[in-house]
Design a protein that fits this description.
The complex is a heterotrimer of chains A (451), B (293) and C (249).
Chain A (H helix, E strand, L loop, with lengths): L2 H6 L1 H26 L5 H20 L4 H25 L4 H25 L7 H7 L7 H20 L1 H9 L1 H6 L4 H31 L2 H7 L5 H26 L4 H19 L5 H33 L9 E2 H7 L4 H13 L3 E3 L3 E4 L1 H22 L1 H4 L15 H13 L12 H7 L16
Antiparallel strand pairs in A: 1-3, 2-3
Chain B lengths: L2 H25 L3 H22 L4 H24 L4 H23 L7 H6 L9 E4 L2 E5 H19 L1 H9 L1 H6 L4 H40 L5 H26 L3 H19 L5 H13 L2
Antiparallel strand pairs in B: 1-2
Chain C lengths: L3 E10 L2 E11 L4 E5 L6 H8 L7 E6 L2 E2 L7 E4 L13 H7 L2 H4 L7 H13 L15 H14 L4 E5 L7 H16 L3 E5 L6 H4 L2 E6 L1 E7 H4 L2 H8 L3 E3 L5 E3 L3
Parallel strand pairs in C: 3-8, 3-9, 6-7, 7-8
Antiparallel strand pairs in C: 1-2, 1-4, 4-5, 9-10, 11-12
Helix pairs in contact in C: 2-4, 2-5, 4-5, 5-6
The chains are: A mainly alpha (451), B mainly alpha (293), C alpha/beta (249).
C-alpha cells in the first residue's frame, strides 16, 4: 500500500480530520496559556484530570465519554483552583505549586486507577492509552465528537476574545473595570480541559500538553497582533497534526502522537530561526549591520576629532594621517571590524591610506563633518532634555528634522560649549570664524547643514 | 530484613533523597524542570538500551544522566535565546519524550521494554532484585542504588553548601563574587538526574515529581532556614513513603500513587496548620490586626 | 457628596499590617497627592479602595455607594510594571481596553470607540504611536498609553499609582497637563506620588500616609514641615527654604 492508497483509506481520513481539529483547538487555546505565562497548565490539566475520570467511572459504573468529561473538567478546575490558592496564600511560587498539584492529583488518579483495576471492571491497558493514546483507533464517531467539541471551543473563544485578551494582558485592570476575572479564568480552564479531554483518547496526555505549548510559541514569532497570533497558532497546530499523521501513515507503524509533537517542534525551530522581525537570523543580521554602522561612525568621528585637534595646533602642520592605534584609541572598535570598515571606507573614497596611516579624503572630511555635527547636536539636545524633549527625537538622523529656530538654539549651545565642529575641508580656520555667525539652513533630502 | 522492611527502606530512601534535592529546585524556581526531566528519562532508558543492548542498571543510569543534563542544557539554551522559560521547558520535554517513544517503537518493540514499569515503578518487586557479589546476597539492588545516590547527593550538598545557597538566593551576586553559577546549576541537574533514575525503579518516573517537590514545599512552609528545610524535607519524604505504603497495602492500591497522595496530605496539613506560614496562623494574625482597629 | 469616603480601612499582607484605620474623605474636583515613605501602604490603599486587595475591615464609598455599584465612574492607572510589555498588541488596542466597561460583553469596539481612543492618545501626545507595538515604546510612552486608557474610561474619579515614576521630562509635562485638564473638567484625581519636591506645585490637596493617616487636606495647610517629619519619621532632613531631602534607609 503506497501513501496515496493509505490516504484514501477512510480510516486514515478520520484520523487526519481528528488530529487536524485537535491541533487547531489546542493551538488557539495554547495561545492564551502562553501569554499568561502558563504554558505548562495544559500538562498540569492533563495529569490532574485522571482522578476526575476515575471517580466518574466509579460513580457511573461504565465507560461514558460524557461523564469522563465532566469528571475531568471537575478535577481540572479543582486543580487550577488549588494552584492559584496555594500561590495566593503562601510563599510557594507558581511553578512549585503547579508541579505539586499536578503530581499529587496524578498520584491520586493512579491510586484510583489501580483500585478500579483490582475490581476487574477496568481496562488494563487504560493507563498506557491514557499516556500515549491510540490515534490509530480513532473511528468516525470519535472524530465527530472531537469535531463538535473543537467547534464549540473555537466559537466560545471567538465570542469572548476581547475579554480573554484583556484578562491575559492586564488582569488587575480587568478586575478594576468589573470583568468577572474568576469566571473567565475558570472558563478558560474549562476550555483547556475540554481540549485535553478530546485529545486524550486519541493521542494521549503528553501530546495534548505539547500541542497546548508548541504551536502557540511558534505563532508568537510571526506576528505582533494577538488576533493573528491565535489564528496562526491554530494553523500551525492543525498543520502539525496533519503532517504527523501523514508521516505516521507513511511509516506504517510509528505512533502518530509523537510524530505530531516532532512536527510541531520542527515548526517551532523553523519559526525561532527564520521568522521576520523576531527570528534569530533576522536579528543576528540586524545586530551585525548595526555594529558595522556604529564602527563606521566611530571611526569617522575619531578621525574627525583627531583632525580637529590637529587644526587647532598653531603650526598648521597637519599630520599626514593617523595610525590604527590612534583611531581605535579614541573610540573602541574591534580589530576585525576596523579592518573591514576601513576597507569599505577606502573603497568609497572617503578615506585614503598608505597602508599604515589613514587620512580622510575631501569627501571623507565632509561626511565626517556631517556626522560630527549630528552627533554633537544630539549631545546638546540630550543635555537640555527638559527643554527639548517634547520634540521626541529618537534617532540621531532625525535631529535635522527639527524646526529651524530650535536648530539655531541648539547650534548656539554648541558654540557656547566650544563643541562646534570645525570645517575641515576647503577652508582654513580663519574662514570658520567668519562663517560661524551665519547659519544657513538647508533642509531636504541631503540635509546638509552649512555653517 | 523482611520483605516489607526492604520496601519501607527503599521508599524512605526515595523520600529522603528526593526531598533534599527538591528543596533546591523549589528555591530556584525549577520545579517544572523536575517534571520535564522525569518525562525525558524515558529517552534515556531507550537510548541506553539501544546502545548497551541490556536492561542492566548501570547503562540505564548513564543514559538517564546524559538525557537529564541534555534536557537542562536545551532549556538553558532556549532561555538564552529569550524563549519564555515555561514554554522552553514544555517544548524540550515534549519533543525529547516524543523522540523516546519513537525510538522505542522503532527499535525496541521486539523486546518487552516495560514502559509501565519505567513510568509507574513497581516497588513491590524491589526486594527480589538483589545484588550478588561473590555469590553473597547483598540486598536489593534498588537499595544499593538509592543509598549510593543519597550519599552522592549529600556529599555534593555538604561540599558546596555555601555555593548552592548563594546561587539559589541571589545568582547575580554569586556571579559577581566569581562563583561558577552555571557549574553549580549543572551539578544540581546531574544530582536531579541520578536521583530521578534511582527513584523511578521504585515509584516510577511520573511520581518522582511528587517526592521531589511536595516534601520540600511543605518544609518551605515550616521554616525559614535552609538547613532546617533540608532536614524537614527529608523527614517528610520518608514519612510520606511509609504512610503511603501502609495505606496502599490496606486498600490494595498502587503504592507509589499512595505515597504521592500521602505527601499531598501532609502538605495540606502543613499548609493549613503551619505555625508560621499556615492559613490558620495568617487568619488569626489578621483578626488580631483588625480587632485593634 | 464626596466622591470618595474611606472609613477605618485596615489591610494586612501576610500577617503584617499595611494600612491601619485609614479614614479620610476627598472633595470633588481636586488633584490629590498621596504621599508617604516607601512601604507606607500608598499603593495598597489604592488597591484596597478598588477591591483588588482584600481589606481586613473598614468601608469605602464612592459618591455614597459601595465600589461595586460605581465601577463606571472610576478610572484606574496601575503601576507600569504590572503588565508584560512584550504582549502582542499596539497602543490603540490598549487604550480601547479602557472602553470595555462601556462596550459590554462580547460586542466589539465600534468606530465611535476607536475615535474616542485616538483622541485620548492625542491628549497625551501619542497619536502618532497608535499602531506602534507596545514593546517598542519607551517607559514614558508606555505610561502615557496607560493614562490614555484611563482617559478612555471616561470616569469621574481617577486613581493613579505612581504615574510619574521613572518617566522622562516630556512625559512628565504631558501628565501634568492632562491632570490639569481633568481638574478643569471637574473630575477628581488621586495620585500616589513619590517626589516631595513637586507636591506643592502639582497638587492642591494631600493625604499624608504612613500606615496611618498623618494628615489630609489642602496642600498649604497640611504639607507642613511638622507633618512631613511625622510622616517620614525622622528620615527627613530639611535644607533651607523649604527644600527637602529625604534620607532613605
Amino acid at each position: 500500500m503506497n501513501l496515496f492508497q493509505h490516504l484514501s483509506d477512510a480510516n486514515t481520513q478520520w484520523v487526519l480530520a481528528g488530529t487536524l481539529l485537535l491541533g487547531m483547538a489546542s493551538g488557539v487555546l495554547g495561545s492564551f496559556a502562553y501569554l499568561k505565562k502558563q504554558s505548562l497548565i495544559g500538562d498540569a490539566m492533563a495529569h490532574a484530570a485522571l482522578p476526575g475520570i476515575c471517580i466518574a467511572f466509579l460513580l457511573y459504573g461504565q465507560k461514558s465519554l460524557f461523564w469522563f468529561f465532566a469528571g475531568a473538567a471537575f478535577s481540572g478546575l479543582l486543580a487550577a483552583y488549588f494552584i492559584q490558592a496555594i500561590v495566593k496564600n503562601s510563599r510557594i511560587k507558581e511553578d512549585a505549586s503547579i508541579a505539586l498539584v499536578l503530581s499529587v492529583f496524578f498520584g491520586i488518579g493512579i491510586v484510583l486507577l489501580t483500585y478500579i483495576n483490582q475490581n476487574g471492571s477496568g481496562n488494563q491497558s487504560g493507563l498506557n492509552n491514557y499516556i500515549f493514546g491510540q490515534a490509530a483507533s480513532l473511528v468516525g464517531n470519535d472524530v465527530k465528537i472531537i469535531a463538535i467539541v473543537a467547534v464549540i471551543l473555537l466559537a466560545v473563544t471567538a465570542l469572548f476574545f476581547k475579554e480573554f485578551k484583556l484578562l491575559t494582558f492586564d488582569p488587575q485592570f480587568a478586575e478594576g473595570i468589573g470583568l468577572p476575572v474568576r469566571f473567565f479564568n475558570g472558563l478558560l480552564m474549562v476550555l483547556i480541559v475540554s481540549a485535553v479531554m478530546i485529545g486524550l483518547q486519541a493521542v494521549g496526555v503528553i501530546l495534548m500538553a505539547a500541542m497546548l505549548i508548541t504551536p502557540a510559541l511558534s505563532a508568537r514569532y510571526w506576528t505582533e497582533r494577538m488576533d493573528r497570533m491565535v489564528v496562526i497558532a491554530g494553523g500551525i497546530g492543525a498543520l502539525s497534526g496533519v503532517v504527523g499523521t501523514i508521516f505516521s501513515t507513511a511509516s506504517e507503524g510509528l505512533p502518530t502522537g509523537p510524530l505530531i509533537i516532532l512536527a510541531a517542534t520542527l515548526f517551532f525551530l523553523f519559526s525561532m530561526v527564520f521568522a521576520p522581525r523576531r527570528g534569530l537570523l533576522v536579528n543576528i543580521v540586524k545586530q551585525m549591520k548595526m555594529r558595522r554602522q556604529t564602527a563606521r561612525e566611530n571611526i569617522m568621528l575619531s578621525m574627525f576629532d583627531l583632525m580637529e585637534e590637529e587644526m587647532r595646533k598653531p603650526a598648521a602642520r597637519h599630520a599626514t594621517g593617523f595610525g590604527e592605534e590612534q583611531i581605535r584609541g579614541l573610540r573602541p572598535v574591534s580589530k576585525r571590524l576596523f579592518a573591514r570598515v576601513m576597507k569599505q571606507l577606502i573603497k568609497e573614497n572617503l578615506v585614503s591610506s598608505d597602508g599604515n596611516r589613514y587620512a580622510l579624503t575631501e569627501q571623507g572630511k565632509e561626511q565626517a563633518y556631517q556626522i560630527a555635527l549630528k552627533n554633537r547636536l544630539m549631545e546638546v539636545y540630550k543635555m537640555y532634555e527638559m527643554k527639548f524633549s517634547h520634540e521626541e527625537v529618537e534617532k540621531q538622523e532625525d535631529i535635522f528634522a527639527l524646526p529651524e529656530p530650535l536648530l539655531q538654539e541648539l547650534t548656539r549651545y554648541l558654540q557656547q560649549l566650544g563643541r562646534m565642529p570645525v570645517r575641515l575641508s576647503k577652508t582654513g580656520p580663519g574662514e570658520n570664524r567668519r562663517n560661524r555667525n551665519n547659519i544657513i539652513g538647508q533642509r531636504g533630502a541631503d540635509s546638509r547643514y552649512e555653517l | 530484613m523482611s520483605y516489607e522492611g526492604w520496601i519501607l527502606l527503599t521508599g524512605a530512601l526515595v523520600g529522603i533523597t528526593c526531598g533534599i534535592v527538591g528543596c533546591f529546585l523549589i528555591l530556584r524556581k525549577m520545579a517544572m524542570l523536575a517534571d520535564a526531566i522525569s518525562h525525558t528519562v524515558l529517552l534515556g532508558i531507550v537510548g541506553a538500551f539501544l546502545v548497551s543492548h541490556s536492561m542492566a542498571g548501570v547503562p540505564m543510569f548513564i543514559g538517564a544522566i546524559i538525557v537529564g543534563l541534555l534536557t537542562a542544557f536545551f532549556v538553558q539554551l532556549l532561555d538564552s535565546l529569550r524563549v519564555q522559560s515555561d514554554a522552553a521547558i514544555g517544548v524540550v520535554f515534549t519533543s525529547l519524550f516524543a523522540l523516546g517513544v519513537i525510538l522505542l517503537s522503532l527499535f525496541a518493540s521486539r523486546v518487552h521494554l516495560d514502559v509501565d514499569h519505567a513510568l509507574m515503578g513497581e516497588i513491590a518487586f524491589v526486594p527480589w532484585d538483589t545484588l550478588e557479589i561473590f555469590g553473597k546476597e547483598m540486598g536489593p539492588k534498588a537499595v544499593w542504588m538509592l543509598g549510593f545516590v543519597l550519599l552522592a547527593d549529600l556529599a555534593v550538598i555538604l561540599l558546596f553548601y555555601k555555593e548552592l545557597k548563594i546561587t539559589s538566593f541571589d545568582p547575580q551576586m554569586a556571579a559577581a563574587l566569581g562563583i561558577p553559577v552555571l557549574l553549580i546549576h549543572y551539578l544540581l541537574m546531574g544530582m536531579l538526574s541520578i536521583t530521578t533514575v534511582a527513584s523511578f525503579d521504585s515509584v516510577g518516573a511520573i511520581l518522582v515529581v511528587a517526592m521531589l517537590i511536595v516534601p520540600g514545599a511543605a518544609a518551605y512552609l515550616l521554616t525559614d532556614r535552609l538547613s532546617v528545610m533540608l532536614v524537614l524535607s527529608a523527614a517528610i519524604g520518608a514519612l510520606s513513603a511509609i504512610i503511603g505504603y501502609y495505606l496502599a497495602v490496606w486498600f490494595n492500591v498502587s503504592i507509589s500513587g499512595m505515597m504521592a497522595a500521602a505527601a499531598g496530605g501532609i502538605f495540606a496539613a502543613v499548609f493549613i496548620f503551619s505555625p508560621k506560614h499556615g492559613l490558620i496562623a495568617k487568619w488569626a494574625a489578621n483578626r488580631k490586626i483588625s480587632r485593634y482597629s | 457628596m464626596n466622591p470618595l469616603m474611606v472609613r477605618n480601612l485596615t489591610v494586612a499582607y501576610h500577617r503584617k499590617p499595611v494600612l491601619q484605620e485609614v479614614s479620610f474623605s476627598v472633595p470633588e474636583g481636586k488633584l490629590i497627592g498621596i504621599i508617604g515613605p516607601n512601604g507606607a501602604g500608598k499603593s495598597t490603599l489604592l488597591k484596597a479602595i478598588l477591591r483588588l486587595v482584600p481589606a481586613a475591615s473598614g468601608e469605602v464609598l464612592i459618591y455614597g455607594k459601595p465600589y461595586k455599584a460605581q465601577r463606571k465612574l472610576i478610572g484606574y492607572v496601575p503601576q507600569r510594571g504590572s503588565v508584560d510589555w512584550d504582549f502582542p498588541t499596539n497602543a490603540l488596542d490598549v487604550v480601547l481596553m479602557g472602553r470595555y466597561g462601556h462596550i459590554g460583553w462580547i460586542k466589539r469596539p465600534g468606530k465611535e470607540d476607536v475615535k474616542l481612543a485616538l483622541s485620548c492618545l492625542e491628549k497625551l501626545g501619542m497619536e502618532n504611536y497608535a499602531h506602534r507595538q507596545i514593546n517598542q515604546l519607551s517607559g514614558g510612552q508606555q505610561q502615557r498609553v496607560f493614562l490614555a486608557r484611563a482617559l478612555a474610561q471616561d470616569a469621574t474619579i481617577y486613581f493613579m499609582d505612581e504615574p510619574f515614576a521613572g518617566v522622562d521630562a516630556a512625559t512628565e509635562k504631558a501628565i501634568i497637563s492632562l491632570l490639569n485638564e481633568l481638574k478643569a473638567q471637574g473630575k477628581t484625581v488621586l495620585v500616589v506620588h513619590h517626589d516631595l519636591h513637586t507636591v506643592q506645585e502639582y497638587f492642591d490637596w494631600v493625604l499624608l500616609l504612613n500606615m496611618r493617616v498623618i494628615g489630609h487636606g489642602p496642600t498649604d495647610e497640611v504639607f507642613t514641615v511638622e507633618n512631613l517629619q511625622k510622616t517620614y519619621g525622622g528620615r527627613l532632613t530639611f535644607l533651607d527654604q523649604g527644600k527637602l531631602l529625604v534620607k532613605h534607609e
